[in-house]
Design goal:
It contains twelve helices and 23 strands. By secondary structure, the chain is an alpha/beta fold. The structure holds MU-OXO-diiron.
Length: 394
């Protein structure tokens, strides 16, 4: 892949990682990813905006050589995470006069993470600009998308926003711009759920902050660019601001089918009552799909058998994850089974303090679920419907 011209003198010089399947040793990447770096040539100065993951540094260097870039004045670093900053040492070595342009918090992180020396930095304040001659870069501080040091870069004359992770999607594609809206919507929603959702309130503030900028292109650091920015702006607005829908997410584990019978009964009861249910068997679930389902759900019901007096470890992991992702859930419940006792309900309920949910009456069966347990599940379904209606979600 060669560099790709976006506007005269503005190039994509990133790397596509088709085969990566895990990010941060945690997040599944079913469709690979890309690390988008951009070169902006002005009449007097040249800037590189973000770099690439160090595993692919040769790709970036080859792009710069292909474009015969003899001089880089500024390496704008919107974000210190290494998938964008990791090739900085190599770039700074190749271009000894280049300065790193970033927030003061980012500077400290780059010194800690990459041992970059103090004199290589230019710190920029919120809304500060740097002139490239006939082009102007404006820096918009946008902390917590998704680290505390993050900023966005706006190329004024061309109306291009470079937001790094913000509006990104883990998607390896040769499409420069979004062509398959459905595919990109799903990848971007997955990305939002896994990376941005814990910071929903700061996402809201940052969406407000950029709303008056004229933007022709959003050029994120993962996935394709947006030449119709309203597509991704509208999606983010909905994920960050909208109230949840009439949706129940039901992650569960079943060891001897007792919990499974209860899950299937509750799914049927909720469906009959007009509630959408997303059911996840945690032995085979892609956690990205689970995270995505939490973006617009009103209720989570966790299904677990009792193992060593507590919840099944896979369920504990799912509860931990849901708590860390801080979705906009309003209600929670727990269903499952036990043999002779246990504390699964207390354990799980204690694991989700970040979720500002009302806990609805749990339903646990002793061994195989019996008539009284199914009636209790009917009651739980009725309660969920009533709560959703009460909040205007149904
Ligand atoms: Fe794509 Fe937060 O790094």
């Amino acid at each position: 892949m060669k560099p790709r011209e976006i506007r005269t003198g503005v190039y994509w010089v990133g790397a596509i990682d088709w085969d990566r399947r895990l990010f941060d040793a945690l997040i599944p990447l079913p469709d690979g990813t890309s690390y988008n770096s951009y070169l902006v040539k002005g009449a007097e100065k040249t800037a590189l905006i973000d770099t690439v993951d160090p595993a692919m540094e040769e790709v970036l260097i080859n792009h710069l050589d292909h474009l015969e870039v003899k001089n880089i004045d500024y390496v704008v670093t919107n974000h210190a995470e290494q998938d964008h900053s990791g090739t900085l040492p190599r770039v700074l070595g190749k271009y000894p006069q280049a300065k790193v342009v970033c927030t003061s918090r980012c500077k400290g992180m780059l010194i800690d993470l990459l041992l970059i020396s103090e004199e290589r930095f230019i710190i920029v304040e919120d809304k500060e600009t740097i002139s490239l001659g006939d082009r102007t870069l404006e820096f918009i501080h946008a902390p917590w998308v998704h680290w505390p040091e993050t900023m966005l870069t706006y190329l004024r004359e061309d109306k291009i926003l470079f937001p790094c992770d913000f509006f990104g999607s883990h998607l390896a594609t040769t499409d420069m711009y979004v062509t398959d809206g459905g595919q990109v919507y799903e990848a971007a929603k997955r990305y939002y759920a896994e990376i941005m959702m814990p910071f929903r309130t700061t996402i809201q503030k940052n969406l407000e902050k950029i709303k008056d900028y004229a933007i022709d292109i959003i050029a994120p650091s993962h996935g394709p660019m947006h030449d119709k920015p309203e597509f991704i702006l509208k999606a983010y607005h909905s994920w960050a601001f909208d109230e949840p829908g009439n949706i129940v997410v039901l992650p569960y584990i079943s060891m001897h089918d007792n919990t499974r019978k209860m899950v299937e009964y509750l799914v049927g009861a909720l469906t009959q009552r007009g509630v959408t249910v997303k059911q996840f068997d945690l032995t085979v679930t892609d956690i990205g799909k689970l995270a995505m389902s939490l973006v617009d759900a009103a209720t989570i019901v966790i299904g677990t058998p009792t193992v060593l007096a507590g919840a099944h470890p896979n369920v504990v992991y799912a509860a931990f994850l849901a708590n860390a992702l801080r979705p906009n859930l309003k209600f929670a419940s727990i269903i499952g089974s036990y043999g002779w006792g246990g504390k699964a309900v207390e354990q799980l309920a204690g694991m989700i303090p970040n979720l500002k949910v009302e806990l609805l009456e749990p339903v646990l069966s002793k061994g195989s679920p019996k008539e009284a347990d199914f009636r209790a599940l009917d009651n739980l379904a009725d309660t969920i419907v009533q709560k959703h209606k009460g909040q205007g979600f149904a």
